[in-house]
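Teaching assistant here, posting this on the class forum so everyone can see the example we discussed in section. The complex has two components, and the goal was to see what a joint structure prediction looks like when all of them are supplied at once.
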Amino acid sequence: MKRIVERIIESLFTVSGAISSIVIVLIIVFLFKEGFGLFSSPTVEKGYSLYINSRNQVSELNTFDITHIFDEKITNWSECGGADMLIKPFRFDEIFELFPEDDLEHNRELIPIRLSEIIAANPNIIAFLPQRFAPQNSEEVKELSIRNISISDFFGGKEWMPTSKPTPLFGVLPLILGTLLVSILAILIALPLGLGVAIYLSELASERMRKFMKPTIELLAGIPSVVYGFFGLVILVPIVQKGLNLSVGETAFTGSLILAIMALPTIITVAEDAMRNTPRTMREASLALGATNWQTIYRVIIPYSASGISAAAVLGIGRAIGETMAVLMVTGNAAVMPTSLFQSVRTIPATIAAELGETPAGSSHYQALFLLGCILFIITMIISITAEVISKKQHNKGL
Amino acid sequence: MNKKLSQDIAFVIFRILGLVIVCLLFWILGFIIYNGIEVISWEFLTTAPTEGMTAGGIFPAIVGTLCLIAGSMIFAFPLGVMSAIYTNEYAGNGTIVKFMRVMTNNLSSIPSIVFGLFGMSLFVNTLGFGDSIIAGSLTLGLLVLPLVIRTTEEALKAVPYAYRTGSLALGATKLQTIRRVVLPAALPNITTGLILSIGRVSGETAPILFTVAAYFLPKLPSSIFDQVMALPYHLYVVATSGTNLEASRPIAYGTALVLIAIVLLMNLLANALRKYFGKKVKTS
């Protein structure tokens, strides 16, 4: 009996181990399953189609043309391969302006008939209609063929307008560039600072000072990111705005500042560990040759711990790229191609956090956000593996 | 340049940088504490928000955060400790263990927003829990799982090998050895890990955005399938999207202070435990 109980408990251990290690697989499966659905979604909003008069020669339009037609930036059919006539965009709601709403409400089968009348009467029309009210078997109406969202639409697109109708634009370039801009600038700020503190801690500080500073830095790492965000919003944003004389303080630069503060503890801890692991004999040899302490630090210790320091930088970038709340609160979140440091940008995590709440599950916007999650996942995976490889190098040196 | 002079300059810079870091921490803490302390009152801690979150307290958010801490720990703690026992005591040092270590290591580098996406996809939508305490707790539990596993593994490794062989030599089975000898010796360090995970869980916002957090919900939860408010999300809401930002600032400071107090308390507790038991182990 006792044997059996022991066996059961031991197999519980095994099962727990198995569960913990497949979590990451589950994450990959669910993320990618939801995300890659985007590439089998049509470019036009799901459940809707575009209809034109059958006398119009145009049979296909690309995403940008459709968007700009409904933006009224393109106003003539000749601009997208048709005859020379003005474009008349028509949205479903407009039917209620042409016909009394009560009639249509009570008599829903009337809607498709009315719609096909409208399209037949206007040779220059392009109508954006729900498929369930689609004008049926009418010879006057033709449905534009719609292709699916392609990989190049997503990765090459420069416009992120997920709620624009009829064609949401999921161009991820501004978000990727925004993320990289903010995180890399953050590391450029944090690395020299962090390195300086690491040198101070490992080489200069007294034992008492170290005992005080190590937990202090740990505390800095423990503060929740939303508190950093709040701090950034209330303190840094006004400082940046006034100090640099900008119209708004919520810029890429502000985001980098707050991310730099958040990445500091990681950088300091990892770099300091690497420096303290420099063998005593190397220090002593350098000092014995007449080098000063400072010469020893920058000629011996820093080169020796170079890979540890690079691991610190890489880990810092990893933390900065994935950071959500603080960035969301201080960068202003304008999804445009970044052209300057002092303009509002939007990062990938901030986009997910800001938009997913209002997105119905299964829509193409939802899938696009999951695909952003996949990108984030892949980037951080690459970074964590890189850091591991680099710090292994450091480790091997110690042997 | 004179090498003594350059050393002096460099060292002064490093000392200043060290000072800057300490000042930075005190600036952030001081800012929150100074502004938050006047808001904190018994009433603030025990009443629900009123008037579009510009008045009243944060009681529902505190309760919500406590629910999430409890829920995620009930899930992550046993799972993490048991899988650490498996990798450390049973699995030896083969490829499986290496594989598992790589997996959990990488898990800890995944951004928390990705956990939020995953939690939404699996718990909220696929399993149909909806936005609920259980979905949020499971998501947060997965987030701290690597932390629990790593601290437990370290705790188990710190138990001298002789304890195990001694127990086994006395005729105890492996499981008895683990239960009666290894776990009691490792318990202080495992507890430290638990406390650190609580600190981490209570401050995370991104994973609960889509799995549990409610914008405004003065009612307390009655089951694990209810939504709740939570402190970090509440801070985000009152700081950025309240109806009247100026009027809700004090609420934001108060919320931030309570949040930081929980997190710092957990960190200090973990440090104190580490120190206390560290001494105890050495002297015995």
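For the discussion questions: Chain B has a mean pLDDT of 87. Chain B is about 75% helix and 0% strand. Think about how each of these relates to the inputs above.
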